[in-house]
Design brief:
The structure is a single chain. Helices cover 43% and strands 11% of the residues. Strand 1, helix 3 and strand 2 form a beta-alpha-beta unit. It has 21 helices and twelve strands. By secondary structure, the chain is α/β, with parallel strands linked by helices.
C-alpha cells in the first residue's frame, strides 16, 4: 500500500510534537528491559483505517492488559516526525513501515529486531505471507517488521456519467486502447468532465500498471532502470497521450487529489488501490455513483497486471515496552487478526486466503476485481534507497505532464537518474 490519506485525523497530526507522538511509549527501552505493561502508542497515516485497527488493539488490551492507542498522522508529517523521533530518541512504540523507507530504518539500527521472537512464535504462520513482503522487511538476515496487508489496483468508474453517455460499464474485458477510447467519449469539451485522472506520483495505482501490462518495467532484471526499455517508453507515451487528451490540466490534478476529483463528479474513471476502499465507502457521492472493475488488459498479450505492495508493522528499538510492542505486532499478524482486519474492512489482508472476507465487508461496492487482480501481480519496484531515485523520477515526469518536454526525453533522463542513484547503493 502506498499512502497517503491527506485528511488529518482530528487535529492531532497538525499539532503533534515529537514528544507528544511518543506518548506513553517512546524512548528508553531496548530489547531486554522496559515495563511489560507500559501503554503503547501506535502510529499510522490513514484515518480510514483507524477505527478498525483500534478495535483490534482493544481486543489486544483485553487479552494482555496492555493499552494500545492508534494515532493518525498525515503521510508527509508521518515521516518527518518519525525521522525526528529517530534522531531525538522519541518515537511511537509501534508503527507502519513502507517499502520506500524500510532499508533506511533497518540499516540504521532504528527498529526493534524481532527475529528471535518470530522464530519462536507459536501463533505465527509466516509461510502464509507473500515472500516479497516478508523479505521487504528483513535486513542482513534479521527481521524488523511483519506484513500488515497487501494491496492491488482496480478501476473505479462513475455509473451516472457512463449512463448519461450511453456507454456500457467496464467489465474487465477492455484493453487499454479501449479504455482510452471510452475516456475520450466521456471527456467533455467544456472541461466539466474528464475521462481519467492521474498524477506522476500516483505510480503504483496508475501508470506503473500500464508499463508492466504493456511489457515494460521500471527496474530490469539487472536491478537497473527499465525506462530505456522500448516497451516502457511505448507505455509511457501512451500515458502521455492520456494526460493531454482525457485528463484535467496537470495543475488541477496536482492541487486536487484524483480521488477528490472523482468524488466530485469531475472525472469519470480513476484507478485506485484497495487501501482507498475504507474511505470511499464512507463518501456519500462515491457510494451512490461508483462501481469497481478490473484493470484493462494488453491487446497483444491479454495480461492485466496489477502492482502490489504491503505495509509492515514495526517497533522502535528504544520503546519502553519491547515485549509488549512485539506482542502487538505478533497479534496483528496472526490469522485471526488478519481475518478480523479484512472483515472490518480495514484493508486487504496479507495472510493467504482471508481477503475473501474483505470483499464482503461492504454491500456498497462489488470488490471482487481487487481479488481477481491477484491473478497477475508485480511487486512494487524498490531498491535499497528507493526514494533517492523515486523523488527525482516524479519530478522529471512532471515535465511531460506539464507539457515542458516530450515523454521520450523524460524517460531518457529518468534512466540516467535512476542508474546513477542505484549504482551509488552498491
Amino acid at each position: 500500500m502506498k499512502r497517503r490519506n491527506k485528511v488529518l485525523a482530528l487535529s492531532l497530526a497538525a499539532a503533534m510534537t515529537v514528544t507528544g507522538l511518543a506518548g506513553c511509549g517512546g524512548s528508553g527501552g531496548g530489547k531486554g528491559g522496559g515495563d511489560p505493561k507500559a501503554a503503547l502508542t501506535v502510529a499510522i497515516w490513514d484515518n480510514g483505517q483507524q477505527k478498525g485497527l483500534q478495535e483490534i488493539c482493544n481486543a489486544f488490551t483485553e487479552a494482555t492488559g496492555i493499552q494500545a492507542q492508534v494515532q493518525v498522522i498525515e503521510w508527509n508529517s508521518y515521516w518527518t516526525l518519525l525521522e525526528a523521533g529517530a534522531s531525538g530518541g522519541d518515537m511511537p512504540d509501534v508503527f507502519w513501515m513502507h517499502s520506500n523507507e524500510a532499508v533506511k530504518y533497518m540499516s540504521n539500527d532504528i527498529l526493534l529486531d524481532i527475529t528471535d521472537q518470530v522464530a519462536k512464535s507459536e501463533v505465527l504462520e509466516m509461510d502464509k505471507f507473500p515472500e516479497d513482503l516478508k523479505q521487504m522487511y528483513q535486513w542482513e538476515g534479521k527481521t524488523y517488521a511483519l506484513p500488515k496487508d497487501m494491496d492491488t489496483i482496480a478501476v473505479w468508474y462513475n455509473k451516472t456519467l457512463f449512463d448519461d453517455a450511453g456507454i456500457p460499464y467496464p467489465d474487465g474485458s477492455w484493453t487499454w486502447d479501449e479504455f482510452y477510447e471510452i475516456a475520450q467519449k466521456l471527456t467533455k469539451d467544456d472541461g466539466s468532465v474528464y475521462g481519467f485522472a492521474a498524477n506522476p506520483s500516483n505510480e503504483q495505482d496508475t501508470w506503473m500498471n500500464i508499463v508492466y501490462t504493456m511489457g515494460g518495467c521500471v527496474l530490469n532484471d539487472q536491478g537497473m532502470s527499465g525506462f530505456d526499455d522500448p516497451k516502457t517508453i511505448e507505455a509511457m507515451e501512451f500515458v502521455d497521450k492520456m494526460v493531454h487528451t482525457v485528463m484535467p490540466p496537470a495543475s488541477t490534478m496536482s492541487e486536487t487529489g484524483t480521488d477528490v476529483l472523482f468524488g466530485s463528479g469531475k472525472v469519470a474513471m480513476i484507478t485506485q488501490g484497495s487501501w482507498m476502499v475504507a474511505g470511499f465507502k464512507d463518501n456519500e457521492y462515491i457510494a451512490e455513483h461508483a462501481a469497481v472493475a478490473r484493470l484493462p488488459k494488453d491487446a497483444a498479450t491479454g495480461r492485466s497486471v496489477s502492482l502490489y505492495n504491503g505495509l509492515g508493522w514495526a517497533a522502535s528499538k528504544n520503546t519502553k515496552n519491547p515485549e509488549g510492542a512485539y506482542k502487538l505486532i505478533e497479534w496483528f499478524t496472526t490469522k485471526d487478526m488478519q481475518q478480523k482486519q479484512a472483515e472490518l474492512g480495514v484493508t486487504m489482508a496479507a495472510y493467504e486466503g482471508v481477503s475473501d472476507q474483505w470483499v464482503n465487508n461492504t454491500d456498497k461496492f462489488d470488490l471482487t476485481p481487487y481479488l481477481e487482480a491477484m491473478d497477475d501481480v508485480v511487486f512494487r519496484p524498490s531498491t535499497r534507497s528507493t526514494l533517492a531515485w523515486w523523488n527525482p523520477m516524479v519530478e522529471e515526469l512532471k515535465k511531460p505532464w506539464n507539457g515542458e518536454e516530450d515523454m521520450a526525453t523524460a524517460c531518457a533522463n529518468i534512466t540516467a537518474i535512476m542508474n546513477e542513484k542505484i549504482a551509488e547503493e552498491k
